[in-house]
Amino acid sequence: MNNPSGDVASTSRRIVTLEQFIVDTFTLIGEDGVERPVEQPDQIGGGGTYAIIGARIFTPPSELGMIIDYTPATLTKAIRDDLKYYGSDMWAFRERTDGHPTARAVNRYQGQSRGFEYLTKPLLLTPHSLSATPFADPLPSTIHFISYPAPRAEIILSEVKELRDQKERNPIIVWEPEDESLEVMQKIAKDIDVIGPNHNEVIRLFQPHIPPEVTPKELQTIYAELCLRIAQFRPKIGVVIRCGCLGCCYAATPTTPHNQDRRPDVKWVPAYWNPQREGWSEGKVVDPTGAGNAFMGGLAAAVDRGYLLDEAVIWGSVAASFTIEQNGLPVLTTKEGKELWNDEDPSDRVQIMKRDLGWNES
C-alpha cells in the first residue's frame, strides 16, 4: 500500500467529483457528413456521473459524493429515482435558481470519434460549490474533476489549497485534462496526484506525427512516449493515458529519494474486453459512452484506499468494462448480501485481470 497524499483517516473517506450532472442526447454523423439523431431515450450522463459510478462499483455510497443541479420540470422523477438506486447518500440534489434548466448535451459520434456540445448553459462546479452539501466537511479525501471547458484547473486547485489550509486536510486530486493547455499541465502537474488524459487528448496536446496507415502496435509506441513526456512533469502519483480498445498505458512517478531522477517505466494494461477475452464475440461491447470517465472513477477508488497505480489501473479497467456493456449506466443488484454489477462481482474481474497479467496473488 502506498498513498503519497494519505493523511486521511479511513473512517472519513469520501470521493467527490466536481463535474455536473448532464442529460445526454445522441446523434450519429454518417459517411455523407449528415448528422442524424439516434433513436434512444434521453440518458443519465456527464463525465462526473460516470466517474462516480465507476468509483461506486468498488465503494459504498456513503463514501462518495456528487452534486445534482436540476429543475423538477427538466429532470424526471424516474431519472432521479434511478440515481438514488445507487445510493441516496452519494447525491446532493439542488434545485437551480439561475433560470436555467438541468444541463443537457449532445454526444456526436462519427466512426470512432466522439464530439460533445452543451445544449443548455452548464453550471460549473468548484470546491467552494461543496459548501452547504454533506460533502463539505470534512474535505473530501479524493477530488475528481475534468478541465472542460478550460481554463478551469488552476481555479479548482487554488480553492483546494485554500480549503486544505483551512481544514488541514490534503485531498488526492484525480484530473482529466480535457481542453486544458500543455502549458497549464506542465505548470500544475506537481500539485496533481493522477493526470489521466485519453488518447485523443494527448494527440491534441503534443500533435505527434501519426502515419496514415498506422498499426495498433505503432499507436502503442506513440502513446507510451507521450505518457513518458507527461510523467516528466512529475505528478505526485503518476500518469495514465486511456487508449480505448487498446487499454491504457501508465507511468508511476518515482517517490523514493534514490530514484527521484530515474526515468519512469511505462507499462501497458489491456482493456478487460478485448478479442482474447471469452465472451468478446457475444456482443458484450454495446456503447463506449462514459467508459473513460468510469475508468478514472475506478482508479480514484483504488488510490483513495492507498493502492499503487498498478492496482488502480486494473480497478479502472474493470469499471470501464461494466460501463460499455449497455446504453447508459451498469445495473446494480444484490444477491445474498453481495452487490453485483451486470450480474457479476467486480472483484472477480479484478482477479481475472491480475491472472492475465501474471500477477501472483498471495
UniProtKB/TrEMBL annotation:
Residues 282-328 form the Carbohydrate kinase PfkB domain. InterPro entries: PfkB_dom (IPR011611), Ribokinase-like (IPR029056). Pfam families: PfkB (PF00294). It comes from Kwoniella dejecticola CBS 10117. It comes from the Eukaryota. Signal peptide: none annotated. PANTHER family: PROTEIN MAK32 (PTHR47098). This is Carbohydrate kinase PfkB domain-containing protein. Coiled coil: none annotated.
